[in-house]
Every structure is written in structure tokens, then in C-alpha cells.
Amino acid sequence: MKKRIVITGYGVINALGKGKEAVEKRLFDGEVGLSRKVFSSKSGDIAGTVGAVREELGEDPFFAENGIPFDRCAQFALLAGSECLEHAGFDLSAESPYRCGVAIGTSLGGMLSGQTFHRQWLENGIDSADADLLVAYPLHTIVDIVAKRFGFRGVKTVISTACAASGNIVGYGCDMIRNGKHDVILAGGVDPLSSFSFAGFNALKALDPERCMPYSGSHGINLGEGGAFVLLEDYDHAVKRGATIYAEVLGYGLSADAYHPTAPDLGGGGASRAMQAAIRASGISVEDIDYVNGHGTGTHANDTAERLAFKAVFHDRVPEVALSSIKGAIGHCLGAAGGEECVASVMALNNGMVPPTVNFDPDFDPAPFDLVPNKAEKRDCRVILSNSFAFGGNNCCLSLGKPGFTGNAPEPVDDSVVITGMGCCGVGGVGIAQLWQTFENRTSCIGRVESAECRNHQAGIMPDVEWKKFIPSKFIRRIDEVTKLTMAAGKQALDHSKLRVTRESSNRIGVIYATGTGPLGTIVNIDKMIVEQGIASISLSDFPNSVINAAPGNFCIANMLKGPTSTLSNGVASFLLAFNYASELLHNDTADAIIVVSADECNEPLLIGNDKLDLLSRDDYRPLTPEADGMVLSPGAVAVVLEKESCARARGAKLLARVKGLGVSSDNGKLASVDPNGEALRVCVENAVREAGSPKIDLYLNTAMGVPACDEADANALQALTEAGVLRADTLCSTVSPLLGIASGTDAGYSLLAALHAFEKQEALGLPAGHPALRAGLEGRYARENRKADIHTACVSGMSLGGTFASLVLEQVND
After folding, report:
1. CA angle, 155 as apex, 150 and 160 as ends, to 5°?
2. pLDDT exceeds cutoff 70 at 380
3. Is 219 assigned a catalytic role?
């Protein structure tokens, strides 16, 4: 029987109040938390109706204790997370911290801190800007803060699929427990109100100046803010510690519209596929479902598409199943929306009511739907679906059951995951042939860049790209740099795999995207326009590319890919975490093939920000040496096609490697750094090798970032792994960073390609000519020149600043 996942606690803050009791009472009483807010800028004041949190938030001691400025989004997360753990009666001292993870969905993360820094920079010069604000700005810092605050050391993941993010993250958290590697995941969503979002949705003409009216003729959405978390727990673990169970997470479904960058599939096709996928994954039928907590934004397109999807799923049961939206009460909380709605659904399972769709037009005829207009409805629900649909065509549906309702969920498939295609674009070359040449010649791709505001003048240099070879012309005109990189690498991998996308197969081919920094150039340009010209200056074409998941959304549209899709942003470890997630989805039979694609740009704002944090090398780049003083950043994209081995063999695909083991962990070290003792990295690699069956590892590839604390962690972990016999004294060690620099979240993707190169050529990558002497204990472990050897197994590890670690073990396939 498939492992049961239960919810044993929850916490919430939104426009209705701070804390679950206040929110539940006001929500089910049909109250409205929306209010007027004026957004001021150089283009004048613009008033809007929003779901703002008006209660006093206080300030968690965490900020002062860690020397970072207060951040509103992080405070939401700490408040809701604290309430959730208290409600669950969870005591970490009785647990293994490496089996307790944190997973958060967000669209903006520390955007408010980033905007403050940017304003200081633009108005008073870069020297006046407070670098501490940048610690909270990267998306992944929100999960670093929560994990450090509560002491969790398992997986740390941020999903950023716009409005579907925190619905997706609850499903992701369940996967991390079902695979047996975690007992507990603190999962939820968080986002603040910001002038950036308001300007963007204003440009799209998607805002309703008055209270939104989901499902009954609204003119647009009202933005909201808040945070909501649930404690996901293995059922047996929850019973053993005597926890109260509030709901069963039966399953979830993901899909891609592959239709339009911002508009939904007007026929509801993507939404209905996500709902049907959730029903299949849960082992239930439509007859078991009593209520759907709808996405219900209040725009005509979204509400119409969702009603059509509802009809496609429920057919003659449409009048019997309630459908309501809580966005009229709290606003659209963007990345937090799915978490808020998950908590509302858990409340409904326990109080015998379903929340109303407030602000419903009394003159609107809802027939044949039960849209729960304006007043909560008494209903003893057994199963609730919770819908989240987003920009970029990301769709997610959660399936929640009353405690004790288990469904008949299918078991994970007993099938290996294999790599059948690869592609790259960026530092090191455009295409695998150019990258292989870079590896074989050990060519340094690090060059000089000029910036008047950055002390560092080094970066990875990529060749010119003829984009039209990989991207249809109609896309090139409207997409940004990181999207071009994504689409070029992804198309190469798809072509290399010879995987045919047909109308029949498209629903079973997914895309999992990874990025460390996302569309930073686009975001900075938009924010600069807001500061210098005002909110009204943002145009219709500017905003769509600013969401993190815009790049994979465009890739799905261009290649008709409609299977499960998600976007992870977790610093330098992003690629490996995305690879891990894609492998889990294949094991769960949600797809037959998934393209894992990662992309990161390298522009002046990224260099300046990292320079302000003293993370960049001042002189020649010397990772793993005593003189290492920082990293060198690079642009790049890597893509691989993963398939279930049975599917790959059935179509006669060439198998490049087989996935044998995956590991994740985290430390609670300093924010924007790692604990130099390397313990968490050791645990991560040990877990991956153990899952692989503890084979002899022929080749070990690590990050070698060049930041002193990171290099020390790498060296200490390598020593400990060798002493423990996880790696052998004769295991070859290699790293791509001295040649390519650090391509942010894509970095470990290049390490994986180096492993595939080693399998193909039976040769381990050496250091570039003239690289200085390495740290004590490392000289001799890393080849100075490319070294011929029998290489049949490889372990790839990656780390992020903030202390997130991931690793995988691959084996060569010899047929």
C-alpha cells in the first residue's frame, strides 16, 4: 500500500487575521478582509483594493540574531510556520533533523528587501546600498530562514510557479516523505504585497479597482498577501508520536497548458488534466469528491476556464459538488494562494462547512453550479480538491481527505530512470560538441568584464548564439535572455533524445525547470522603471517575462509539452533538486519522460549584488586552493531528458546513464554561506550512495565554488567520505568550476554533463593548465590533466549558499 501522508498541524496569516482561529471564524462567517491601498510613485498615486494584512506583525528575534534587516515575507513565514509547529505539537528534539525538511512556494520571496536595496542604489549610488538587504532577496533565502529558525536539516526547496507554487509545494513535500527519506515536511506558501506585482497586474489590466467577484462577473483580481503552512507527516510516524490528524493528503496532479504566457487554456484543458491527475494519483473516483476549493481569481478568462474544467471532470455530478473561491475574502496571495486554500480546505474537512464565495453578485444565476454564494454551506466532506492555476500555464490540484479516508492510490512503478538526451547553451559552448571540446582541451572560459560599479572584473564568457536554430522567430522577439538559454538547451536535449512529441504523448512529457537567479535582468529593468518613471510606466509586454516560471512556460508552448511541470529555485543546488524531483515524478508514474532544464544569466546586477556580499573572486579564480577568495559567475543552460527505462527501451532510445541514487540535506549555518565543517554534504552524499547500493564510485564531481567556507566544506566532506569508505582513496575527483566558473543554479548541470562525458570518453576532466596548488589533502585527488580510466559510476554533488546540498549517483549503461 502506498505510504499515507497526513496533515498534523497548520498555521495561517492573511487579510482576515493572524492565526488559524481568527481566520477560520471570519472566513466561514463570510467576512471580507479586503481594503483600499494607495500605491504612490512618480507617475502618480494609484488606488487599489487589496487583501493586506493589517494586524501588527511584530519582529521575530531571528532577524537581529542573524544580523539581517526585517523582511515582511520572512516574518509571514516565521509566524505561520511557528503556529503550524505549535498546533502539531511537534518537538524537533525527539526527531532526526535530517529527516525533517522545509518546502516553500513563493513568487516574490524577499522582493521587498531587494526593492529597498535597488532604490538605495538608484537614488544614492551603489556604495550607499545596504548589502545586508541582499541576504534576504534570493528566492531560496526564505526556506533557509525557516529551516534555520526551526532547526530542520533535511531537504530545503523553493518552488516558484507563480500562483500554483504553494499548492505544488504541498504535493512535492508528500513526495519527499513517500520516498522514505523524510518523516516530516513543513510545507506552505508565502508572499507579500509589493509595488512590483501591483504595477505588473495593472499593466495587464487584470486588477479590479473594487472588490473582486469570483465566478459572477468580476472585472479582475485583488492582490493579497500572507502565509500558510501545513505539517506533512508520515502516517505511522504521526501515530507513533500521538499526533492529531486533521487531513489525509491523498495525492496531487500537475499539468501544463502549453497555450499562452499569461492567459489560461480557454477550454479548461490544462486545468481538467491536473484535476484528473490528482484523482488518479489519489485512487479515488469523482463520486468521492464533495467540494472543490477553486482557483477563482475573478477574471473572466480564469473563471470561465475553471468552470469548463469542472464540467469536464464531474459531468452529471456538477450540481452535486460545491465549488467556491476564498479570493473574494483575502485577495489573490500569488505564490501563497495554494497554501492559504489548502489550509481552508483542511478547516472545511474538520468543521463540516465549506467556505463561501463572497462578493457574489446576487443577480448572477450560478446554475448548474453550486458556487456557495456569500454564505458558508453545511457539508460533511470526505474528499476536497484544491485548485491552483498560474501564469506560464502551470496547473496544480491537491486532493485532501477526511482523516481515515485513504483512497486506493497506486504504488510507485518499479522502473529505473535513465538519461536519454542532453543539451547545453552558454559558458563552455553552444551544444554538446562544443562543450566536449572545451573539456578535452581544458579550455578556460573565464574572461574579463567591465563594470564601473563592481570590483570584480571576471565572468564566464559564452559564445554568440544563433537563436533561430533552436527557437521559433515569433518567440525570439518577446522573450528575455534566460528564456532564450532555456529554450535553446531544452530543444537540443529533446532533439538529441529523439523523443517524438505527438498529440497523444504530449500529456505524458513534462518539464521541470531549475534556476538560481531567474529573469533577474528583466526584474531589475522593471523595478528601475517603477522607481524612475512610476508604476504606470510598465507596459503589457514587460511583466510576463518577470515570473520565474516564464522560461519553461514558453518552452512548453513551443514544443507542445503538456505533462507535469514545475519550477525550482534553490541557489547553486537548483539543478540537482530539480533532477531529484523529476525522478520522483517518474517513479510515481505521472509521466513517461521529463525534460530537466536549468538556465541562469550573468549580468551586471548579478555581479554587483554578489560583489556587495564579498562573494566574488578579486584576482585570478583559484577554487580549492589556499588562495581562493570567491567565485566567478557565468551564464549557462543545461538540459537532460529523463525517461522511465521501460519507455526508453520500448522506443529504442540510446541510454546515456542510469540514475541509481539521490540525496538531499541542509545545514543551519550562516545565511548566504555554508557550514565549513561539511557534515551536511557528507550526509547528503552518503545517502545517495547508500540508495545506489553502495557501489564503488569511480568519479566524484563537486562544486568547488571558490568561496572559502564552501571550499572548506567540500574538502572536509571529501575527507570524511573517504575515511568512511563511501568514496575510495583512488576515486577520481573532478570539478568544472575552474574552466567554466559557477553558472548559478545550473552549475551542477554542467557537473552532470562532465560525468556523461567521462562515461562516453572514459576520461576524467582535469584542472586547467597553471592552476595553483590545491588545499592540503586535495593534491593528487584531482587530476592535473585529463586522466584515462575505467569510469562506470559517478557521484555528482552540489551546494548552495545558505546550506542546501544535493547529490546523485549515476551508472553507465552497457548494453
Report:
1. 95
2. yes
3. no
Cα 202 from Cα 405, distance rounded (Å): 43
Q: What are the DSSP calls for 696-734, one per residue? A: PP-EEE----S-HHHHHHHHHHHHHHHHTTSS-TT-EEE
What is the 3-state secondary structure of 507-539?
HHEEEEEECCCCCHHHHHHHHHHHHHCCHHHCC
C-alpha to C-alpha distance for 388 and 105, rounded to whole angstroms: 12
C-alpha cell at 815: 548494453
For the record, the C-alpha cell of 155 comes out as: 531537504
CA–CA gap between residue 768 and residue 772 (Å, rounded): 10
Beta strands in 90-202 (DSSP E): 100-105, 156-159, 184-191
- In the numeric block, the cell 487554456 is attached to 265
| Residue 1 pLDDT greater than 70, yes or no | no
> Of how many residues is the chain composed?
815
Q: In this structure, what C-alpha cell is assigned to residue 137?
A: 532577496
* Percent of the chain scoring above 70 in pLDDT: 100
Is residue 757 annotated as a catalytic residue, yes or no?
A: no
Q: How many CB atoms lie within 10 A of CB 364?
A: 12
Mean pLDDT over residues 233-259, rounded? 98
Question: Residue 179 has which C-alpha cell?
Answer: 520516498
Cell 495561517, residue located: 12
pLDDT digits (tens, 9 = 90+) for 300-310: 999 999 999 99
Cell numbers that stand for 37 in this block? 491601498
> What is the per-residue pLDDT for 86?
98
CA of residue 72 relative to chain centroid, distance: 20
Does the model's pTM come out above 0.85? yes
The catalytic position among 140, 295, 587, 771 is 295
Note the pLDDT tens digit of each residue in 176-196. 999 999 999 999 999 999 999
Residue-averaged pLDDT of the chain: 97
Q: How far apart are the first and last CA of the chain?
A: 34
Q: What are phi and psi of 104, to 5 degrees?
A: -130, 140
Query: 519 and 744 in contact (C-beta within 8 Å)?
Result: no
b/e for 224-262, b at 16 or more Cβ within 10 A?
bbbbbbbbbbbbebbeebebebbbbbbbbbbbbbbbbbb
Q: CA-CA-CA-CA torsion for 765, 771, 772, 777, nearest 10 degrees? A: 0
User: Which of 182, 332, 587, 771 is an active site residue?
Assistant: 332
Task: Convert the pLDDT of each residue in 105-157 to its tens digit.
Answer: 999 999 999 999 999 999 999 999 999 999 999 999 999 999 999 999 999 99
Question: Which H or E run contains 400?
Answer: strand 394-401
SS3 string, 586-601, reads HHCCCCCEEEEEEEEC
Rounded Cα gap, residues 733 and 273, in angstroms: 45
Please state, in angstroms and rounded to a whole number, the distance separating the CA atoms of residues 488 and 608. Answer: 27
Catalytic residue (choose from 100, 163, 333, 710): 163
Dihedral of CA 472/476/480/484: which sign? positive
What pLDDT is attached to residue 540? 84
Rounded (5°) CA angle 522-528-530: 105
Catalytic site residue 300?
A: no
Q: Which three cell numbers stand for residue 433?
A: 560538441
Asked if 632 and 766 touch (Cβ cutoff 8 Å), the reply is: no
pLDDT beyond 70 at 750: yes
